[in-house]
Automatic annotation (TrEMBL):
InterPro entries: Alkaline_phosphatase_core_sf (IPR017850), Phosphodiest/P_Trfase (IPR002591)
PANTHER family: BIS(5'-ADENOSYL)-TRIPHOSPHATASE (PTHR10151:SF120), ECTONUCLEOTIDE PYROPHOSPHATASE/PHOSPHODIESTERASE (PTHR10151)
Signal peptide: none
Name used for this protein in its record: Type I phosphodiesterase/nucleotide pyrophosphatase
Higher taxonomy: Bacteria, Bacillati, Actinomycetota, Actinomycetes, Pseudonocardiales
Gene source species: Amycolatopsis japonica
MF GO annotations: hydrolase activity
């Protein structure tokens, strides 16, 4: 199948390598053709889609003025995969964080944000050490080895999580508590030469999930994000570069189907991963064809539904390593329109959310690339 977002649109994973190349670090491809910089920050605004920004220009005049082109985030369009792209410079098929939740052979389905069992919530940090699940050198480790002062400026509550260790090892972690110290700490980090920092803001995504993207609370938060970016642009040291990106967009789900209340979707299925808009379906041995047929019959044209090999061949996950391939569902489902596949008992919180993401639609795949210089 032809992907809804063209492959020639630059991938989120190209941003940090391009920035590090602009800082003079060897071994990084500057595929975005960024001009030389003395210090740089990549600020990721969780959930800020390209289409959502275009729909609300008056709430984000600074971002709107500076956003010249989109990026694509790859499949699935979700935070774990996006942080993996930032942290390795690669797509999910190589870094291996192939969903909000996915099966790790021999252990079960891992919730990558909580690093817990998706079945019973049990802590999996011991059974699945983060740097074994994602063993590739991080962009932060490589930058530090190249002599660049490297920092992560993000919420203090994420400082020692397993996902942080999997994707941000090698950087000095600066824990912050609000927009004010996020801005102040980013600008402080940029005073070193050469310096690279990655900043992260999560609350726009949270409000989009709870109230819906484009809702009044979401728009008010977008205004605060725009002020954050304005403060950073105004405070950039001479020669410094700011790149603002996101990990996915978001849609409001309408007309969801409960997987666990649909018996035809459960025959031959041993585990289910992913999230409402992007599902990994793991089948019993020998049942792959029957599971594929059943999901296609029940869901019809409300989603793209492919067996693993076809999804890989179609480029959904980018290049896929042998280490990562078994984590991908035997059947992979990507919702179209505003459709969703919930599990109201097994995933009560996730299923209750208004805004969702993960799939291949432009609303979820495209995010802005905002560039500013001091």
């Amino acid at each position: 199948m032809e992907l809804p977002v063209a492959a020639h649109v630059p991938h989120l994973g190209q941003v940090v390598p391009s920035v590090l190349s602009a800082l003079g670090a060897e071994g990084f491809a500057n595929s975005l053709s960024l001009a030389e910089a003395s210090s740089a920050c990549v600020l990721l605004i969780d959930g800020l889609g390209w289409e959502l920004l275009a729909e609300h220009p008056t709430d984000a005049p600074v971002l709107t003025q500076l956003a010249k082109s989109p990026l694509r985030v790859g499949f699935p369009a979700t935070t774990a995969a996006g942080l993996g792209a930032i942290g390795t410079g690669l797509a999910s098929g190589e870094h291996g964080l192939v969903g909000y939740s996915f099966e790790v052979p021999g252990t079960g389905v891992l919730n990558a944000l909580r690093w817990s069992s998706h079945v019973d919530g049990g802590d999996l940090r011991g059974a699945l050490p983060p740097r074994e699940v994602q063993p590739l050198p991080t962009t932060f480790e490589r930058a530090a080895a190249a002599g660049i002062t490297t920092s992560v400026v993000s919420s203090a509550k994420f400082a020692d999580t397993a996902l942080t260790r999997a994707t941000q090892s090698g950087a000095r972690y600066v824990g912050v508590h609000a927009l004010g110290d996020l801005a102040a700490c980013v600008l402080h980090c940029l005073e070193a030469r050469p310096a690279f920092c990655w900043g992260y803001h999560s609350e726009l995504d949270m409000l989009g999930h709870i109230y819906g993207p484009g809702s009044a609370p979401w728009r008010m938060q977008l205004r605060q994000v725009d002020r954050l970016v304005e403060s950073l642009v105004d405070g950039l040291p001479p020669g410094a570069l700011l790149a603002v990106v996101a990990d996915h967009g978001m849609v409001t789900v309408e007309g969801a189907l409960d997987i666990d209340e649909t018996p035809a979707l459960l025959g031959g299925v041993r585990a289910i991963g992913g999230e409402v808009r992007a599902r990994h379906v793991y089948s019993e041995a020998g049942a792959e064809a029957d599971v594929l047929a059943a999901w296609r019959e029940v869901i019809g044209d409300r989603a793209w539904i492919l067996p693993r090999d076809e999804a890989v061949e179609a480029g959904w996950f980018g290049p896929v390593s042998d280490r990562v391939r078994p984590r991908i569902g035997d059947v992979v489902v990507a919702a179209k329109g505003r459709f969703g596949l919930v599990r109201e008992l097994a995933e009560a919180v996730e299923s209750s959310l208004v805004g969702q993401h993960g799939s291949l639609t432009p609303a979820e795949q495209l995010v802005p690339l905002v560039l500013a210089r001091g």
